[in-house]
Batch of 2 targets.
Target 1
Amino acid sequence: MIWAIFIKSIKEQLRNFWILILTVSMAPFFVFVYFLINEASQPHYRALIVNQDQGVTVQDEQINIGSALLPGFQEYIDSMENIPLSIRSAGSRAAAIKKIETRKADVLLVIPAHFSQALLSEATHTPELEIVGNLTSTGYLISAVWVGEMLNEFMAQQTGQERLFTVKETALGLSGQIDEFEIWVPGILILSIIMLMFSATIAIIVEVDQGTILRMKLSGMRAWQFLVGVGSSQMLVGIIAIFLTLAAATSLGFEMRGSFWSFLLITVLTSISMIAFSLILAAVTRSVTDVLVVGNFPLFLFMFFSGAAFPISPQAWFYLGDYGVSWQTLMSAAPAISALQKTSIMGVGLADVGGELLALVFMTAIYFAIGLWGFQRRHLRTK
Amino acid sequence: MISISHLRKNFGDLAAVDDLSLTINHGEILGLLGPNGAGKTTTIRMLCDLLERDGGEIHWETTGELSEIIGFCSQENLYWPRLTCREQLVFLGTMHKMSAAAAHSRAIELLNMLGLAGKTDVYAAKLSGGMQRRLNIALALIHDPPVLILDEPEAGLDPQSRILVRDLIRSLARQKTVIITTHNMDEAERLSDRVAIIDHGKLLEVGSVDSLKQSLGSGDCLECRFETDLGYLLTEKSSPATQFIEAISSLGLATDTISVVQDKLLIRSFQHLEKLSALTDLAKMQGLEIQDIQLRKTTLEDVFINLTGRALRE
Ligand SMILES: Nc1ncnc2c1ncn2[C@@H]1O[C@H](COP(=O)(O)OP(=O)(O)O)[C@@H](O)[C@H]1O
Ligand SMILES: [Mg+2]
């Protein structure tokens, strides 16, 4: 008897091989996901440098040690392969501080205005460099030590003299203001929208599953009418999810700094984007069970690689405004999270997240086009 | 009028519909009769443009969108389980561009006609099988289409529902063109003005029930059921069955009015009663046991048997 049930069950599994394949490939997929996460989250410290050195004029010659030093120092740090630190020069002190506030960089090194002057003066007046960062962050502690030490080493190498400068530490006032929790709230808000993937796909596929799509097809309905109709109802679900998440975050201390309307615009656009993505999922599934199995793949990709659960900053292919487009942008949640972090934590206006919004809208249009085409072909075509 | 010409559909090597030509007149009830797998559903689905055809033409006399012309009730019940009867009728009506008010009054009218008035606000999932079938017919009729296509409307209906559905379909006749498919000759016979008999995707015969029956010749049908499968015995040379059939011929009944299907012998004649005792004697002589004998009117089943040599019911 048990044998018969076993055999029958095996047969059924094999005949449902699509689900079977997905089920058995889920674990290998996760191994891969964790590998990538590990790769992506290898500790890497990012230092910024701002050169405020105004230089000196000696015998009609303009000398600026700060800017002369910079490229070499950058190369020197990059050549240290065993030290996971990179240094980039930032446009201004204010811009650099913004980056530190949003965890895009760990430390800022400021070369003071009188740097050249102090070094070249006869007096033993050593210039004072400023190191700025969030004193409570370990990323800052490590990178501040490295940056200071390495600049010292580099200058010693160049001049044969040690300790040519002193260091002053500036704690960023936000150290206590924005904590780790708040940094994560935008990602989690977007995650609540990512979850729409399931409910939206199911809302669509249930018509296919129970065959009622046939009735709607016979009524002369067009695919886009159906999808817009179902999508709007999912919009509502999305908005409720966002507000519940926001309410939960606010009650635990999250403080939204940006305008409410930018917040609403970004979250609504993201919901539309996820609903459009659901069409693609609906096009490759046939039943609610399919959705629950197949949907895990994109769900985990979106969760782990769009920045919702981890900070990931891959190499940008090109820039749209301030936003670096990379493979991550293929998941529309990535620009959404970036936009939401900038607007609701840093309080910037919509104009400053134009790149993100453009990327988000563009990906949504692509999802919708692929989804509509696929859905029509798979579920509405007369075969 | 709907005219179908040289309709074809292949599924791989299988010709599910094979060069089928048929005209359906305005206001008639046409029954598509054939055994399971004959190609009825496939034909219907091509008619509704739910399936691409491999060949042939379908011409609709009525102009306009197909969605407005056809009301379709598929073989399997398709409904929204989590909507009440009224809600889904109104929803589908709205999909058919009806105003909410018109859809609502039409929904109530149909629920009354189909004996579902008491279930107006009940979820479709909670209805009995027969009620769900009736709900499906209501869904097909919501937009008051001039052509109603019902795929096996009586399948799975309890006798009570069956009467309701038959009355409804009859009441629609004349105002609407109705196409029903069935593998039940009784259903086809009671409902259809004309019956098209199809088998293996081919149209075998089409005509009014009476004319189809008359094509078999006049007279009633004597049906003898044997204990053994006569048809099987006949495949063997010089079996008692073969000798029995040969002997019957000598009774003076024309051979083409005799047919054998499995355990049944069917004889169409005017003179059954005179020959009855001779017949039973002949059977006894060959050692064939007659289980029962029935004298009845010719049915569509007989027509099908005559056309295919097989019974409609397998
Ligand atoms: N989608 C399909 N793919 C392959 N074969 C099919 C398909 N649909 C129907 N058939 C075959 O076509 C034949 C006719 O089927 P159908 O039209 O459903 O018969 P009926 O409705 O008369 O019972 C059957 O042999 C059936 O197995
Ligand atoms: Mg059928």
Target 2
Amino acid sequence: MDLADLLEIKEKELRTRKPIRLRCCLAAGCVSSNGQAVKESLDKAVQEAGLADEVEVRQVGCMRLCCEGPLVAVDPAGILYQKVAPEDAASIVAALKGGETQVKRGDLNHPFFTKQMSIVLENSGEIDPERIESYIAADGYQALNDALVEMKPKEVIDAILQSGLRGRGGAGYPTGLKWATVAKMQGSKKYVICNADEGDPGAFMDRSVLESDPHRLLEGMAIAAYAVGADQGFIYVRAEYPLAISRLHTAIKQAKQHGLLGSGVLEAAFTFNVEIRIGAGAFVCGEETALMASIEGERGTPRPRPPFPAERGLYAGPTLINNVETLANVPSIVRKGADWFAGIGTEKSKGTKVFALAGKITNTGLIEVPMGTSLRTIVEEMGAGAPDGNQVKAVQTGGPSGGCLPASQLDTPVDYESLQQLGSIMGSGGMIVMDQTTNMVDVARFFMEFCMDESCGKCTPCRAGTVQLHALLDRILRRQATARDLELLEELCDLVKHTSLCGLGQTAPNPVLSTLRFFRNEYLELLQPEIGAPAAFGTPPKPDVNPTG
Amino acid sequence: MDRLTFATVWLGGCSGCHMSFLDLDEWLVDLADMVEIVYSPIIDRKEYPENVAVCLIEGAVANEDNLEQVKLIRARTRLLISFGDCAVTGNVTAMRNPLRTAEPVLQRAYLDTANLRPRIPQARGIVPPLLDQVLPVHEVVPVDYFLPGCPPPADRIRTLLRDVIAGKGSLLSGENIRFG
Amino acid sequence: MPVKTLTIDGKPVSAVEGQTVLEAAQDAGISIPTLCHLDGVSDVGACRLCLVEVAGVSRLLPACVTKVTEEMEVRTESERLKRYRRMILELLFAERNHVCAVCVSNGRCELQNLAVAQGMDHVRFAYRFPPYEVDITHRMFGMDHNRCVLCSRCVRVCWFIEGAATKNVAGRGADARIITDLSQPWGESETCTSCGKCVQACPTGAKFHKGSTVAEMERDRSRLEYIVTAREKKQWIV
Ligand SMILES: Cc1cc2nc3c(=O)[nH]c(=O)nc-3n(C[C@H](O)[C@H](O)[C@H](O)COP(=O)(O)O)c2cc1C
Ligand code: SF4
Ligand code: SF4
Ligand code: FES
């Protein structure tokens, strides 16, 4: 396989394409609302209408507006059908030839669609994720070819550096720097790991990429491996994602068959193999050192860094670990150039970010927007605000590690620094909208319960601290707490944040701290008066400072 | 000089702390010069008075009577001192807490192991019902100072009382705050 | 061996490259509180009691796993560190059922000693009172989960000094607990060699010799040191 072969596959794929395409979303969201049956009945209806030569019914990945699934799009007519039932198939097919259908149509001119910008999701909802030809027809694997044939590893790293790409797994570490560190390390065996653990409640961006465009990830990983000098890759994905896992398996098999993985990739002197490792769904196994321990068959608990994975990672070898979305950006950057990418987004946050929009919002689903887009644009325009005439009260980003921003901060642009300044984080991309019926102390308790349950138990502040934080929040909510308890809550947040071993504990207090910052009154309203000492009488005076208290 | 009003209270504990208090021996005479004991298991007074300056509180909050008492005491006392491990941590008194309710304890004490007329005593107003969970004093009301030890040795009690009476607060540290 | 010079609490200290801040401090006679650290086995940085401040680093660093660097300025005492240490101890005491008055290790317990040293005279958090079992199925030893602080010292000596790999940690978060083999009664273990190293390693009264009563449980850490020295330095301490 070389470039010529790639182009030939592409050409053939385009040549044999049928004039009309019905794209059926078969990512997990639409599958769970019966999308598979919709596709099958469309297949049948096309047969029955004798249009098989003209019409292709194609399974595709996520088409974004998950709340309206199952979704079916029609090319080239530019129609999006929503909430399609298997019974609708005949009328949809009839409508292709001038018939009528009552099936609900989506408004593709709605800001939900028009304000999106697709890089990571560029093929999502377009190509068939189970056919490598479909990916190659969308210029797939050309970036890998460019890298292998035309660029030295260092040039690839420079391009990633220049693009300004930062990690999408949460922390926002500059990707190029990480690559450069791994590349620099001595060591005969290096590894590339794709972190597809995605444990945040409410987040499904990475899953969508895996289900909709798995080859993009493989291509990104191969480019990364070439750049850092690795020959072995692992994808660590949670067992709760069976569809993603099966599509990844398919993709790896196809890529190997096409000489795009394995030895002598694209006829270059480059070997790269990818294996899948399935995690049991512990949130902490998304933390890089715990993840590596888990791959090695150890208990999935984090260890202190340094040494960082780049220095001493999987099986003690230098290891590059990146998030799914981070790696999915790579082929586009290599293909379209670092400057193109660097031209999108804000000064310090380049490119786009995918968010899983959920909660009390009219349009829930997947959005990809340029960095710097305001929360208001996302929530009010794209998401169309809270349903049933309710008011948006707060937006939560970063999941259990993030914070709640009040409606008054909706003009905040989504970029790493702005969110952090307000006590939240970009996180991996969960965005949960809350309306005025939401009690913010309850929200804090919800996330604390999550962290408490997911703490690995290795270090004291997180293991025992989250339990006590949860107990204190619970006490406040049961109206049994006093000002003493609130003070203790704040002191404990400070401890857990600054002394925990890994990011789970270090960020666990964030939902409490941010709700305390913006919604303190909701806490104060729940406090009870303390039974105090009587007013001063006689001696002894109580000393100002209590040396042991 | 006016003597300080001083009280000692015995809640859910074994009275070992009070025994240790009595171990202060002749210093008790000095203490009597500095304080007026207005309430204590060792004097005869039925009701906890108002305006107590300093109170040593032994034992954990184990039953409904303790719970009421401790709130009343807090409201009438300037400086409240948790006296001994049961007051400070729950200690032995709280060892039943992992059972979650009082029921298994009563069952074992009054039914399973009784030779004669097994029955759980119930007399409202006379036998206070047990709380399901035994609590250290400061989980119920704010406590000013802590005097750990099971029991706190007499020396430790003296050190603390001296400082508190002198208006210095608690300066206990080192071995003087060892539990157990 | 290259030497690094640094300051700990303002005191100039020299240390060998590769040494940890904890080792350098100990050599210089400066004490840093520790709990999960045990001489002779690898460190895990889990208890977080040994956290220190290092100039120019915004995070606190665990002294037991942080290597010395040239011109490092370490502070082991500050109001903030004291506050944190005390609170970590409070969390540990509240987490399980530590009833010092009736414990085999009363008076010789590292947890109790730490509380004394850090001025912890009461626990502000609500005690959890979890229901835990005592395993006395082993012929010679007992394990009282009520007193375990999950330092994992027993696990590490069992794996890395004895090589039996009998002890392990199971469960997550507050449910984490020390298990024997695949979570079976200690007495039924086929891998346990009854060497007693885990009992020697335990900082609290969680692991004890059967037959010891309140405050009777004495440990002899030199027995561990003996083996570690023999192994690492090929010397037999007499
Ligand atoms: C508790 C915890 C959970 C994490 N979960 C994930 C995850 O699910 N996916 C992910 O990519 N990164 C996760 N991370 C971040 C990873 O440790 C790591 O920083 C990331 O994979 C690096 O990739 P990036 O540089 O591309 O962002 C998690 C971190 C912590 C502390
Ligand atoms: S912070 Fe929590 S999850 Fe991380 S090591 Fe500590 S206990 Fe485990
Ligand atoms: S049993 Fe002892 S040595 Fe083992 S983890 Fe518990 S406290 Fe540590
Ligand atoms: S001794 Fe360093 S973290 Fe426990």
